[in-house]
Amino acid sequence: MAAEIDDKLPPNSMSYLPRVVLRKVVDSDLPIFFEHQRDPEGARMAAFPSRDHDAFITHWAKLRREPSNIVRTIVCDGQVAGNIGSWIAEDRRLIGYWIGREFWGRGVATAALAALVAEVKERPLHAFVAKHNLGSIRVLEKCEFVPSPEHDSSVAGEDGIHEVLYVLSRQGV
């Protein structure tokens, strides 16, 4: 079953928000995800290094095998736009996503996150975001995530990256 957000504006409107659907990941999505994570600007924004092909395939096999993980393909207007998921780490249910740059700035991430939040009933949900990634911070805040006081973003992690921990404590969006 696919979660769906259909945010089209009235037909007389000059613009529209994209039709975004979440569905299960299939093998043919992986080459697209691989190319997305190779984009230097996307990797810089996410503050996450690109993986080589073998490491990427191994990582996705592990993600798809773990029953507590929720991994979805983001489809925008019929095209694979990225991926989104949720997993458990250090006793937290985390969320994360990666959107292909050609879909940035169109509301795709916000619609996808809203659909995932509706699908995942467990609360709280957590998301770490690089402090410089203002686009993802805005997406999280639109979906009612708030900065967590339990994490000091002024202290860089072992990798030198300053991250903000966002949390969604209640049902909604």
CATH fold name of the domain at 3-121: Aminopeptidase
What is the overall pLDDT average? Answer: 87
Radius of gyration, in angstroms, nearest whole number:
16 Å
**So, CATH architecture of the domain at 3-121?**
3-Layer(aba) Sandwich
Largest sheet: 8 strands, mixed
How would you write the strand order of the largest sheet? Answer: 1-2-3-4-5-6-8-7
Residue runs with pLDDT of under 50 for 5 or more positions: 1-14
Helix % is 25-40%
Beta strand count: 8
Give the termini distance in whole angstroms.
20 Å
What coarse outline follows from CA principal-axis ratios? globular
Question: Helix/strand-derived class?
Answer: alpha+beta
